[in-house]
């Protein structure tokens, strides 16, 4: 019996577990319930991803050319939605944990390449007006083009520039700046900022600021909380409201801005690799940033497919902004004038 066992072991070493079982898992052989419980998404969504990413994932590489796009996508979804490379998940689709890790890397990069296709502000006037109308319908706040906030995602301590990623809680993290619409669709996502940077600094240095100051709509604004400076294109709450109009403005601002907080909760519920329940992301800051952005792309695609943004229960430990709401006083007189005009015109 010793000889056959030795031959079998050599076969495993030569070809790997995945080589023998790559074709045994077929989407049509399992139920939607199984796909949702194991990989987080139904069959139609997974098939869409195969069509979208198939050509990219089929590019021949020395390591993973034998693994089908379908299998790579299932492996990546399994990691994004569970936060771990579980042996049983690799066994289900017939690949090793090492192969799962390579699949996650491949799918992540394919999604990041398409980020601008799925995460962007509307361009045409009708879509911009619809965006404003939808926000106005929430709490009567006019002119809103998006709600902006930061959220922290925990990562392992990097090998270099260690202190730049230590946030105010003493944890290593990335500070992610995001904007969403009234449905929770992400319009902007910058996921690479070191956790030591306060929200106001992130926004100051972000591409979003350049975009709004040089390109975007002069007749609208984003809504941000008190950790940001008031700008002509960014309305913040009044620090100490005194008049009825100021109270009404703050109430409408809070009710509208709450959309981004709900969106953060939904993203961490759907993508458990981000919520800290399985530990921090065990990757470099750059790779962790790409995983977060890939999850943002999948979040938007899921909304396109009618997967309700508010359907997932809130859970987990994904860090909200580390700001202790230092009251950021604006020195921009034009921004103060714009907010005062908004108060007088719509809340008095």
TrEMBL record:
One MF annotation (Gene Ontology) recorded for this entry: metal ion binding
Subcellular location: Cytoplasm; Nucleus
Keyword Cytoplasm: yes
Keywords, sorted A to Z: Cytoplasm, Hydrolase, Metal-binding, Nuclease, Nucleus
PANTHER family to which the protein is assigned, alphabetical: NUCLEASE HARBI1-RELATED, PTHR22930
One annotated Gene Ontology cellular component of this protein: nucleus
Gene encoding the protein: HARBI1
Organism listed in the record: Catharus ustulatus
Domain DDE Tnp4: 148-300
Protein name per Swiss-Prot or TrEMBL: Putative nuclease HARBI1
Primary site of residence: cytoplasm
Domain of life: Eukaryota
Family: Belongs to the HARBI1 family.
Function (record text): Transposase-derived protein that may have nuclease activity. Does not have transposase activity.
Cofactor: a divalent metal cation
């Amino acid at each position: 019996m010793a000889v056959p066992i030795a031959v079998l072991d050599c076969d495993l070493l030569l070809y790997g577990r995945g080589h023998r079982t790559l074709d045994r898992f077929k989407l049509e052989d399992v139920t939607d319930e199984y796909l949702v419980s194991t990989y987080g998404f139904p069959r139609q969504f997974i098939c869409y991803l195969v069509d979208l990413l198939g050509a990219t994932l089929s590019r021949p590489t020395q390591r993973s050319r034998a693994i089908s796009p379908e299998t790579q996508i299932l492996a990546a979804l399994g990691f994004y939605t569970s936060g771990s490379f579980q042996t049983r998940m690799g066994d289900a689709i017939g690949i090793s944990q090492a192969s799962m890790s390579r699949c996650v890397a491949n799918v992540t990069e394919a999604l990041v390449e398409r980020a601008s296709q799925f995460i962007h502000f509307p361009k045409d006037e009708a879509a911009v007006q619809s965006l404003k109308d939808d926000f106005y319908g929430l709490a009567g706040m006019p002119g809103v083009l998006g709600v902006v906030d930061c959220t922290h995602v925990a990562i392992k301590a990097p090998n270099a520039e260690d202190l730049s990623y230590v946030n105010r809680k003493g944890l290593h993290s990335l500070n992610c700046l995001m904007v969403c619409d009234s449905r929770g669709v992400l319009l902007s996502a910058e996921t690479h900022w070191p956790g030591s940077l306060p929200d106001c600094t992130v926004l100051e240095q972000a591409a979003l600021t350049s975009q709004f100051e040089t390109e975007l709509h002069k007749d609208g604004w984003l809504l941000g909380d008190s950790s940001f400076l008031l700008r002509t294109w960014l309305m913040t709450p009044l620090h100490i409201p005194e008049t009825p109009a100021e109270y009404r403005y703050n109430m409408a601002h809070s009710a509208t801005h709450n959309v981004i907080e709900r969106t953060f909760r939904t993203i961490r519920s759907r993508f458990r690799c981000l919520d800290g329940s399985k530990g921090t992301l065990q990757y470099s800051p750059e790779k962790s940033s790409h995983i977060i952005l890939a999850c943002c792309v999948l979040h938007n695609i899921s909304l396109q497919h009618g997967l309700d943004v508010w359907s997932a229960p809130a859970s987990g430990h994904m860090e909200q902004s580390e700001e202790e709401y230092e009251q950021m006083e604006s020195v921009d007189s034009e921004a103060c004038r714009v907010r005062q005009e908004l108060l007088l015109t719509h809340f008095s």
